[in-house]
Write a sequence for this structure.
């Protein structure tokens, strides 16, 4: 269950990271409110997952999910470049996340 909570926390991290772009420096009310809510939900869920998962593993997986999700959505939503080196780097991050899950003692 903790891994599912951590996955959802990572998704909310992606949401707030992308939301930052839409806040226009926190000058737009509704995108700013949505982004702050996503931040709070993400950190609360991370804290819940850390009740049973190792802190280093949970934090690394959380940031990895957020990083991969944000990079992919940046490509899709904002036209950021899709290059082979970027895709290889995303693959390395994903392999690290999978490795941490696989080798976790929980």
């Amino acid at each position: 269950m903790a891994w599912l909570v951590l996955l959802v926390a990572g998704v909310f991290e992606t949401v707030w990271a992308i939301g930052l772009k839409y806040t226009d420096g926190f000058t737009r009310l509704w995108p700013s409110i949505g982004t702050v809510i996503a931040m709070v939900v993400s950190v609360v869920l991370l804290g819940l997952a850390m009740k049973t998962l190792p802190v280093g593993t949970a934090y690394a997986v959380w940031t990895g999910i957020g990083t991969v999700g944000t990079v992919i959505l940046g490509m899709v939503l904002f036209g950021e470049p899709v290059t082979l080196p970027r895709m290889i780097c995303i693959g390395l991050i994903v392999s690290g996340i999978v490795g941490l899950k696989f080798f976790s003692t929980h």
User: Anything to note?
Assistant: The mean pLDDT is 96. The CA atoms of residues 9 and 46 lie 6 Å apart. The chain has one domain: 2-102.
